[in-house]
Amino acid sequence: MTRLEVAIVGAGFAGIGMAMSLRRAGVESVTVLERATALGGTWRDNTYPGIACDVPSHLYGFADHPNPSWSAVYAPGAEIRDYLEQVAAAEGIVPRLSSPLDGAEWMGDHWVLDIGGIAPTVLEADVLVLACGRLTEPSIPEIPGLESFAGPIFHSARWDHSVDLSGVRVGVVGTGASAIQLVPELAATADVTLFQRTPAWIMPRNAREYTAAERARFADDADALAAVRAELDAEGEERFASRSGDRDAAAAATAQALAHLHAQISDPALRDALTPDYAFGCKRVLLSDAFYPALASDRVRLVPSALASVDAGTLVAEDGTRAEVDALVLATGFSSTRQPYAELVRGESETLAEHWSAGMTSFGSTVVSGFPNLFVLNGPNASLGHTSSVLMIEEQAAYAARTIAHRDGVLRVDPDAEAAYTAEIDAAAAQTPWLRGGCRNWYVDDRSGRLTLLWPGTVAAFRERLAAADGSEFLPAPITRGSP
């Protein structure tokens, strides 16, 4: 049976970033396991029309691998996937593809991993890193009659490119981050009926392509490239105030979003239907220059009500609106607060799913009591609502790598340390719009009402928090009989 020092599950940003950090820390016996046939994570899986990053390109990459060649301020999805492949190649990271994790169990001093796929096997690893992402399993709503739909139906994250939607009637369910990108693209060639449960706060995107001269300057001048990243980092951190409930910052952002809406939607009734009734920042704030114009056109019909049922080719909204469509796209998000891998991982006495039955908890958003030598990236309270998630991944990977490299024996998280960190998160989140803003969002676990997905602070604060971790979050090694 193959024995590894570290097994990493997932070959997206988190997995590649973790492998890089381990190499820099001097840890060489590392394998990256990937269930798909290619690396790339969410940027491999999501290929819907119009997909692009909603974080500026020069901030959506690794600090050690700046990319002077981004084509636009907001890179398209395929370009981000290509970037990840280039980074992996430059770092010599070759994931083991078609190797899904079917189960993992702690065996006293190591993990035993059941690996499925085309070549099932069993691996042993001293350390297990879950870099599986938080947006991996599409959320399919339980809608009566959905199975009766007569035409093509697919989730936005599993786009069926064999289906030609040109000239047909397309129903789209959802008005989140994916929908506002794909609806304008669909509306260019199809007639779209859009079902909106809740309107989103939408800010101007101000998207544009970089000129050849700009790209040449970035390629020739490393300081200029670094300055762009630093400027975007500072701008991103400034946005935290408006998202987290600062009164003045939220008021200014709300005014900007409403001005954007009024500038692009002239119909008062449509404008009213698109105006949120909850606090700015309560749900994910979206960016688009094209969504409102698409809805103002005669190619999109907005139904300001959730889809309630399906009867063959007829979609019925909660308000009674009926729509005949030929194809149906579910832009309904992901299972974010209940991570699908949690059922597969068994620690000293329970699975992660059981440990997280009332919502995800951890120390440092990275390690979990009862699960020795386990590190989770992009898990409990590791997401952001104001800037690049890659920044959080880099901090988690750096913490994990230095902890793994300097460990002396088994790393068991002190339950009191996890409880204290959880209480710290709860206190920081208590008065924020995420909990008090009058909306239902994917940041909060509905079983406990706790904020379990977002880090309720800036990236700088997270960096300081992990830098302060001195090893006291782990239990001392037990003294065995016969020890001095």
TrEMBL record:
The keyword Oxidoreductase applies. Its EC number is 1.14.13.-. It comes from the Bacteria. The keyword Methyltransferase does not apply. InterPro entries: FAD-bind_Monooxygenase_sf, FAD/NAD-bd_sf. GO terms for molecular function: monooxygenase activity. It is an enzyme of class 1 (oxidoreductase). It holds the Pfam family Pyr_redox_3. Keywords: Monooxygenase, Oxidoreductase. This is Flavin-containing monooxygenase.
